[in-house]
Amino acid sequence: MEKSRIEYLLKKIEEQTSNAGEEQEKILENILKRNAETDYLNKFLHGQTDKQLFKKYVPVVTYEDIKSYIDRIVDGEPPNILTTETITEFILSSGTSGGEPKYVLSTADCSQKRASIPMLMEAVMHKHIEGLDKGKGMYLLFSNPDFDTPSGLKARMFSSSYLSSPTFKTTLFKTVTTPIEIILSLNKPQSMYCQLLIGLIRRHEVLRIGTIFASTFPNCIKFLQDHWKDICSDIRTGHLSDWITEPDCRTPMLSFLLEPNSELADLLEPIFKNESWEGIITKLWPKAKYIDAIVTGSMSQYIGLIDYYSGRLPIISTFYNSSEACFGINMEPLNKPWDVSYTFLPNMAYFEFIPVDKESPQKAQKLHFNGVSNEESIEKLENGSAQIVDLVDVKMGQFYEVVVTTLAGLYRYRVGDILKVTGFHNKSPKFQFVERQNVALSIDRDKTSEADLSKAIKAAEIELEPHGFLLTVYSSFADTWSIPGRYILFWELKLRDSNTDRLKLDSNTMEQCCRRVEESLDFTYRLYRKMNLIGPLEIRVVKFGAFDELMNFFVSRGAAPLQYKTPCCLKIKEAIEILDSRVVGKFFSNGNLA
Ligand code: AMP
C-alpha cells in the first residue's frame, strides 16, 4: 500500500473518531430520513423522523422479533417493508443458536463498508510494522457457494461476499500470495492445497500468515500433516498432483510450478519430518512477522495452539465485525491477545448500548450477566429505570450489550455480543469483546456462559503443562439424560514435542483437570454440585483430528469454513456423536468440591 494512501486512511480514522458524536447523529438522521416511510418504522413513528421519538418509540429487538419481515422479503415481497434502499443480496449470519442461519439484508453501502474495514486495518498495520510492502501475506481464505432465494436475490456468507467484492479483487488481493481464482474456488481441499503449496514456493516473500478467525488454523495444520509429502513431491518434480482437478485451482498453479525445484524440497522435507512441529510456521516461513487471525472471544481457545506452531509470533486480531454491521478495528494491533480492544468506527452504523450488570453481587446467587440479567436490563429499559446509551456516552469499565440500527433495515437490533469499555480513541470508545451472549451450558437453574467455561478450562489446562500436553480445541454439552445432569467436555490434546497421535493419558492428571474446571466454575455450579443437583463433570479426550470431522459436519450443513467457529457447546445429536465416536479416554471429577 502506498505511503500516501496509508496516510489518507489513517487520517480518515482520526477524523471519524474525533467527531464520533456528530457522525452518529448524522447516520441516524440519514437512516430516519430515508426509511421513515417503511412499514416497520411507520408503525412506530407514523412518518416522523425525529431522533428522540425514534429512541422513545422504536423497540429494541432480536432476530425473532423481525424474522417475519425478513422472511417476507426473502420470499419476494418488496424490501420497503423494512428499507427503501436497494437490496443487493442476503448475508447469512453464523450467529444462531438453533442451527438455522439468520438472513441479513445487504445493500451496496453495506458491502462498501464491509470492504473498507480490512483496508483501514491494512493502513493501521503498515503504521505499526515496517516493511510490510516488501512482501506478501499467505492468507488462507475460502469462498462458500451462494444460493438463490425466492426473491431472486442470492444469499451468501459475508466472507464470500467480501472475497468477491471489487475492493478485495482490486486492492487487498494484491497483498496476498494466492491468485484470486484459487481463493474463490468452491473446492476447499483443492484450494487449501494450492494455497499452501504456493505459500511454500513463495516462502521468502511471506511476511505474514493469516486467515479471518483463528479456528481455521487447526484445520490447516492437520491438512499439512496429511499432505506435506505430496506438497514436497510436487515441488521436487514441478508437477502438480493429479488429484487437483478443478480448473480454478489447476490452471493458475501452472505459473508457479514451472520447473522441478529439488533444492526447496530438500530444505522443506526435514522440517516436516521433524518429530516435533513446535515453531514449524517460522521454520517454513522464516520472514513471517506476525499471525493475522481473530483470537478474541470464543477464538481465544486457539491462542495456545497458534503459539505452539508459530513459535510465539505476535497474533493480531484485526477487526470486530458481523453480518449485521461492522463495528471496529484494533488500533493497537501489537497488544497481547488478552488486551485487545476494538475502536468503534462511528460511521459504520448507529450504535446504542444496553448496560449489563456484570459485577452485580447477584451473580453470586446465580444471576449471570448473560441471558438472565440482560433480560432484566431490557425489563428495566422498558419500565424506564435503565438507560440505553449512545456510543459517546458509554462509561469506562462498564459492560454493555451492543445494539445496531442500519440503513439496511435493522432498527435497534440486539447483536448479542457483550463488550467492555477499556478506553477511548479520540471520542470513540474502545471495547474489549467479552462474549457472545449465549448460555453455553445449562442444567437445572445453573447457567454457565461461554466466557465462564473458557476461563475454567484455562485454569485446568495448567495441570497438563508438566506432562507436555497441549489442549488444542474443546467443546462441551450438557448431559441432561443422566440423573443428576452433568457437563461433559470434549478435549483434543496433543503432545507438545511430538506429532504422535498415541497419547498416554494419566488418569490422575485428567481427573485433576476435571476437578480444576469444576472448582473454577461459578458459585451456583459449585453449590449445585455440592447439593448433588449436578453430577461430576466428565472430560472425554478425543483423537487428534476429531474436531476437523466436526467442522466438516457443520460445513456440510452450510457453515462457511471462514466464518466457522467451533461451537463451545454442542446441541445437535449427530455433532455429539461425531466426537463421541472418536473418544480415546473418559475421566471424571471425583471426591467432593471444597
Ligand atoms: P457472523 O454473524 O457469522 O458474521 O458472526 C459475527 C459474530 O462473530 C459477532 O457478533 C461476534 O460474536 C463474533 N465476532 C466477530 N468478530 C469478532 C472478534 N474480533 N472477536 C470476537 N468475536 C468476534
UniProtKB/TrEMBL annotation:
InterPro entries attached to this UniProt entry: GH3, GH3_C, GH3_M
Matches recorded under Pfam families: GH3 (PF03321), GH3_C (PF23572), GH3_M (PF23571)
Domain GH3 C-terminal: 452-571
Residues annotated as domain GH3 middle: 342-436
Key words of the record: Ligase
A Gene Ontology term for the protein's cellular component: cytoplasm
A molecular-function term among this protein's GO annotations: acid-amino acid ligase activity
Assigned protein family: Belongs to the IAA-amido conjugating enzyme family.
Protein name: GH3 auxin-responsive promoter
